[in-house]
Records
---
Amino acid sequence: MKEINTLFIYPTDTVWGIGGDCKSFEVYKRISEIKKRSLDVPISILFSNIKEIRQYFSLPNHLSPSFLEEFFKLETTIGLPLKLIRPEKKNSIPPWIYSSSSWVGVRCLDYPWINNLTQLVNGPILTTSLNLRGLPPITSYNEAAQFHKDFAPEAKFVSSQDKTPLSGTPSSIYVLQENETFRILRPGRYQEELEKLLPLQ
């Protein structure tokens, strides 16, 4: 198997993930092959801090750094309209990321190993759950290590120091609407807290 230096397997706050340089179609294609998923399925991108998100997107005032910090603590993905991508960053978020969708899913995890990965590729990484299509996402270190061995040996395997168990529930997905409210696409573990935080459609 040809090694892809920017393909990674790593823990998130919810489940184990697989991802890599979001500018590389080779990485996106390989992830689709590993997971046995269609090439036209959108995929999220993962940042290591809010400052970087604001460098890629022209965010409305109500998506302040303090709001986003609270939002991302609650195991969430935010769907940002494509029109918010800054013109100079259009090539850094290529169309295979969002496919036919009108928005792109964005996550943010302030973890040292995620920061290392984004520095390695000089930008956000595309990210999705570690599993084969139709099977539950992987939540344990041992299962992730076995998946790495069986299906993606060319990937760089990244682990947190303490191998802490993850929550096991995929992130909530909330899509930002034209009227500055949010549409729930996928509820998650902190539904009640998010309903208090967000103006919902």
Note: The two ends are 47 Å apart (CA to CA).
---
Amino acid sequence: MAGSEENKKDPKDVYLGLRNQALGMTLEKLTGVNAIGTHGVYGVLMETGYPEAIVTLAAFLPGDASLYFSTGGGMIGGGGYDSVRKAVVNFNEKADAFIPHCKKSPAFPMPMSGQTIFYILTKEGIYTAQALEESLGNGKEVLSPLFFDGQEVITQFRVAADTKKN
């Protein structure tokens, strides 16, 4: 029995591995994908810090999405649902317009509680911007429309997963 306990991975380590894999995604790894927009967007990560966990939405062209929780668990395979694919493509298309409100980032800190950070993956590099989740949700930030598009991806993912269960 002790051996099986040793083989269990810490949920935080699994989360960090998935997060690093998402942040390290390149256009070349997304076989047959064309980047979109002026800046060549091909993926967006939206991370929100909560007191109990960090939630990361990773959304890549041509429409795949995953949702990771720092406490363990999440959802993968969002690209298997038409509604999710459409929401992901929209999220990536809209992200291109927000690049002027971002800066290139060589580092990828995790959000503090109450904070949302966007990482927009482009052919030019990774751009980032952040704001308080409450301000984003209340439409008070220039990034609020992008936040709402990310929330739509999550909503479509959850609806599709719930429909599959029933």
Note: Residues 2-165 form one domain.
---
Amino acid sequence: MKKYAVTVLTLVTAALILFLGVSSGGSAQNDTQKDQEKDLPKLVIPKRPSPEKFPCSKCHNYRPADRKKRTLVLYHTEITLKHADDRRWCYDCHEGDKLKLSSGELVDYDKPYLLCGQCHGTIFRDWKAGIHGRRTGMWNGDKLYRVCVSCHDPHQPKFKQIEPEKEPVSPAAIK
């Protein structure tokens, strides 16, 4: 009788866990995104897309998507792709009014760190820790974190080299 009760209890527990997982909308993609976002700061300030060009669907709903890589001559001519440009094209990262992760999952433009973090994992880790990027706020309170596109142009993210400062004068050399 005890063995039967343990088996029934195990089955009921398993069914409850399955039910809770399904009813909460748990999916592998949602779990992956939650894992990526679990250590994020309290407040993130993204650079918003320009209202002239966003939402993308303002224009792209009326034009068929040309997914082949080419030089842009009619629209978006101000964009020069210098970001893995020999391997990337617009539709690798953009899909409609969303950003597209390598898994195919779509995320809002206010979460570019999820897209950038796929290739730049160590920088993403450092950004979450406050080592990379500009962070302001209180030591032991709310902080403001800038996201990747607050400082980097996503199409040409590399900063120009900075000339190093002269080395400091040694105290012994000061007279």
Note: Helices lie at 2-23, 28-37, 57-60, 90-93, 112-119, 121-129, 148-151.
